[in-house]
Each structure stands twice: as structure tokens, then as C-alpha cells.
Fold this protein.
Amino acid sequence: MTDAVFSGLQPAAVWAHFSRLCATPRASKHEAMLRDALLQWAFSRGLAAEVDASGNLIIRKPASIGREHCPGVVLQAHLDMVCQKNADSSHDFSRDAIIPVLRDGWLATEKTTLGADNGIGVALILAVLEDDSLQHGPIEALLTVDEEAGMGGARGLEPRVLQSQLMLNLDTEDWGEFYLGCAGGLDVNVERRGAAEAVPAGYQAWRIDLAGLRGGHSGVDIHEERGNAIKLLVRVLRELEAMFPLRLAELSGGTARNALPREASAVILLPVDMADRLAVAVLAIQRCLQGELRGVDEGVELSVSACDASMVMSPSEQRIWLASLHAAPHGVRRMSRQVPGVVETSNNLGMVELHPNGGSCNFMVRSLLGSGSMALADEIASLWALSDSRVEKEGFYPGWAPNPDSQLLKLCQSVYRRDFGADSKVQVIHAGLECGIIGDKYPGMDIVSFGPTIRGAHAPGERVEVASVEKCWNLLTAILAELR
């Protein structure tokens, strides 16, 4: 079925590689199966290849005949993908192939992520490596691991591995735009331990589910003010606390730090005679949320079902968790004054997991400014310090500062104008590309990023525009031919 979907798509070599990526599990930190297969593929083609100490795959292709004097270029993408699925999906990302569908010029999935982020970039690079008809200077393909879960591959890259002073990153999602800068950031992890208590006599357990949100990329989509399932459900619980003698047993939501949470659930306990009042209250809150989110996430739904619970959180821990999560920032903090229309600083409350005896949550902070991300992270840490919670700030990575004098950018713009008859756009993205980390390790490296049009990255229903992939291939090969 999958092969039939790709039949006839152009360029055939790119889609053949992407088809193989779809068939190979490649969650963050579990890229070994794919990486090892690509290593053997490179050896079979007579290409020099190695896996570095951090697990990155580096493949080198010599210059085409007569182009040995041309400058070398790094082609860079990441092997891993964000693994998100709807609650009603049985897909197992550790073993099952991604099953895409072709619809109205887009390759998409229905209940899972597609992995076009960054599988299309990988496929473009592999197609370049295997096509001996292309004209180019020396090529170094850098296929990193663990990008989506902390950029571990880029962090571990040694400063002297790469020889080229030019790099094309293929990990952005709007055709016709060249990216010259990105946000940096860090994670704030919170953890608390509590003392579980027995369920009070005469109480009944209920499960509340919040679903129907769009989710999305916590950087690219953060400005759209889509609903955050965790924040919304905490608000629901706070409102119910004001109506009922509610006891909290569990709260969970979100499955990826860099994805907007689409679903969340809680187990609460109420006196047995309050069931009817609970249903009425939840319905009223649902209508309120749908009204507030009209035009962006009005599909939000709340459901209540009876369940079992043997223990609950202590009242003091319940107050700390719900009040702190309710007060914690989420969303855009500041828009950039230097780059109009671009988010400067934001935060995503991406995951929470609470049980009667404790719990944890994660915040992912992004900013174009290192000081901006650290300041917001400190604000979050200060909130949780009020309750003596354990807070850890980790994984700081630098942003990618724009270089408006980039000679590589000028070449890319010139080729785009010549081949597509229009001017391209130059952008800065509020997402964490590996360019900042790699550029920090290789001072003076001239870096530009571009890619096909991808929508819904990091969420089920992710899709890539087929026509833009062919355009991206034509642009990439033309740029390689013009580098002299």
C-alpha cells in the first residue's frame, strides 16, 4: 500500500528514500536501525562514511569530475522524528511503518505524525549522494540523531569533523523562504514527591478527558494561540475545585516536550451524590472553552466516565500542583522588535504526569536571545521554588544569529530568482534548528536553511506538499552546481 502511494511522485529517487524512511522506526534516541542501514548503503556505493561518538552519521562524496577545486558544502538534516498519535490509534512507533496517504497534492497521515520533519531533508540528501550525474564540489552529509529530544547529536559533534565552510540545512517548512536565524532555548524540569492518601469514604472516582485540540509544533505554531490541553484541563479542575470537595488522583497530558499538548486526562474523586452535578458543570465548562477557542481550536471536547482509584494526592500537594500549573506561563512572551512578525521568546508546557505520590512536568523555553530564554526559565523556576519543588534547568542551546551579509544566501537567492522567476523571502524561525549549535562549533561557517512546505509538524495529520519537494530538489541541485 505504501509503495503505491509513492508511485509516480517526482523526483522518484527522493520519494524512494522517503518511502524507506517511513518503513523504518526512527524515534528520537532510537535511530540506530535506520542509521546502520544507511551506513551500509553508503559503503555499498563506495562512499566514505562513519558514525561519530554521538551517533551522527557522516557520509562524504567526492567532487564530480572537474569540480575538485570548488568549495565543499555540508548537507545537513536529522534522522529522528517526533512520534505523536491520536489516542484511538494503535500505531507502535517502535515497530510499525508510517502509512501515508496522497490527498489533493499533499502526502499526509491521518492519526500519526508523518516524519516529513525531517525525513524529506534526509531523503533529499541521500538522493544527492547517489546521483552521479550531478555537478558539485566535495559534499559532506551530516545526518544527526536526537534532534527532536534535545539536539544531542549536534551537541556532541566534534569541532574538527567537518572540513567545509558552507552548510545547507534542509529542516525548514516553507517553500520559497530561506532561513538565516533561529531560536535557542532550554528545558525546565519540575519534580515533586508527595504522600499518597486513601480515598475518602463515600467518594467515587471519575476520569475527565480533554481532547480535540490541533496540537502542533511548539515553536512554529506557538503564536497561533492554539489550546494547550494541560493548561486547559488544569483550569477545568480549578473551576471544579470551587464547586465540589474534589480530590485529585492523577493528571497526565502531552507526550513530547516540543509539541503543543493535544490531549490530557485526570482522575478525580467526588462524593457519590454529586455525579449529576459534575456532568452539568463539565458540559458548561466545555461550552465556555469552545467559545473562547472559536476559530483556532473550537473542537475541544470534555468527557467524563466512571473509573477506579485507590489512592489520592494529599490536599496540600493537590493545591501546589494545580495552583502552580495554573499560574505557570505558556505561549508567546515577547515578539521580536528586530525581526517584525517573528516571536522572540516563548514557552511550552509540554508534558505533565501526576500520581498520588508525586509527579513531574516539563517546560520548553525558546528565544532568539540567550538572555531571553534564561530569564523566562528563571521565572518558571522561581514559581516552583515557592513550593520547594525540585527544579532543573538543562539542555541550553544557542540560537542562530542572522548574518545578512551571507554570500551563500546571496547565491541561493540568485539561483531561486533565475530558476523560479520570483524573489524568495528571508526569514528567522522561532524553532530550534541545529544550525545554531553547529555554527557555534564551527565559527565562520556560512549557513542557510530551506525546505519544502510542511504543515502540522509534530502532530497527527502532518503533511508535506508534493510539488514543493520537487522544487526543493531542483533548487538544491542547482545551488550545488553554482558553488564554484
About this structure: The mean pLDDT is 96. DSSP finds twelve helices and 25 strands in the chain. The longest strand covers residues 343-355.
